[in-house]
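Encode chain A's predicted structure.
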Amino acid sequence: MNNINKKKKLGQVFTPIEIAQFMSDLVSNSQAKTVLDPAVGQGIFIDCLEKAKYQNMNYTCYDIDKEVIKEFRKNISAPVNLFIEDYLSSFCENKFDIIICNPPYNKFQQIPNRNKYIANFREWFNIEMSSYSNLCVYFLIKSLHELTENGKCVYIIPYEFFNTEYGIGVKKYLLESKRLKAIYKFDSTIKLFDDAITTSCILFFDGNQNEKIDFIYIRSIDELETKKFFKVNTHSNSDINPNGKWNRYFSDEKKFRSSKLVFFKDIAQVKRGIATGNNKFFCLSRDQVRDLKISEESLVRCVTKSADVERFIFTREDFARLEKQNKKVFLFDGEKAKSEYDSYYINYGKAQRVDQGYLNSHKNPWYALEKRAPAPIWITVFSRNKLKIIRNESGVKNLTTFHGIYFNEKNEEYINLFFCYLLTPIGHEHLCINKRDYGNGLNKFEPNDLNNALILDLSMISLADRRKILYCYDQIKDQGVTQEILEKMNNIFLCYV
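Encoded structure for chain A:
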């Protein structure tokens, strides 16, 4: 097994020195006598602690990678109780004054022993772990049970679990324990690890009964050395909701006052786009339609790629332009097949085993398309830096490159108003509280991330301000989105926050 595959299998992500030094400083404790590193790797945390010149420190370390342990022994001269075994399978009665760790990051599908871990945690700690939990969460929970009463613990892990369903139980546990002192969340554009696409955070625990938690947002790695952080918010445990996403606690709370906000799902429903199961077969260009002699009755007009949509308001003329450019803007709907050539194409698909694909094998018939009405607003699933919001005036459908927004009341004026709100910085900020960070600036929304987002209650907008915003909408249709138009709309919406 080569190094890349081995690191992926074991979930290994080695710690940069700047991170290791910062984490070691956090757990600094002159009274400490015992240290635990449950995933020691090459020993960078032990090295940092040794340089702090602790006297008579007793180190206990775990790792399962014998090759990495060879490097550890080259790097570390201090006496260490080293266990080359699975930390999670080892019940430890000892408690430690300092626990410091960068655990493996395997997702639940990559944990062959997860049922064993779940059973162990139930027996050892009386905790019911979710089967969807990332491996690093098991490490964290076990370590907190092995921390002395006045001890300090610091972990660096993916931030994603704070935004997941399985993370709810963990967040409840963290709040109830009252040992969580601070969360240091790194901006998603900061690439801490070469081999991991994820947004990271550092969790710091101490021996106090903490009634408050510091939510610290880090925009630059240099802040670790200066200790001058981009943003620090402090919230009482009683005000923190374990059932919700914790992104909001890193933001300006004044922009998220519940009396001014409503749930997205109370206004509209977000649904993913059409999944064909085989875009190569189902997505066709005008030239392909002509060459295959596919009937017009079996075609569904559809945007298949985000890159094909260049304007914020997508019209029938824009679609016609894509068709003329021979873009793949038609879906073949076999249920509407009319001609013998349509039947030939269905048989061709079967000969190519299109019907055997996972999604199509679960459809009846396999060549049926998912039922979706055209959505009046599209929003990209993945984004970097800013969201791509499109007002769909063309009446065409969309694939999974976009989510579709379907309004409870089909009022064109309100839809245009809502679209303008989503375009603005304050609209983005409200939505992005529920986004999923994947590192390197990559963000993702699942439909329910948006459905459960809190957004501005647009019913509060005065008639005069509505007219101003809708005038901006007309300007966008004529000239596109300019900075001046964005600022004008944003300033109006900010008056209602």
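The longest helix spans residues 463-479.
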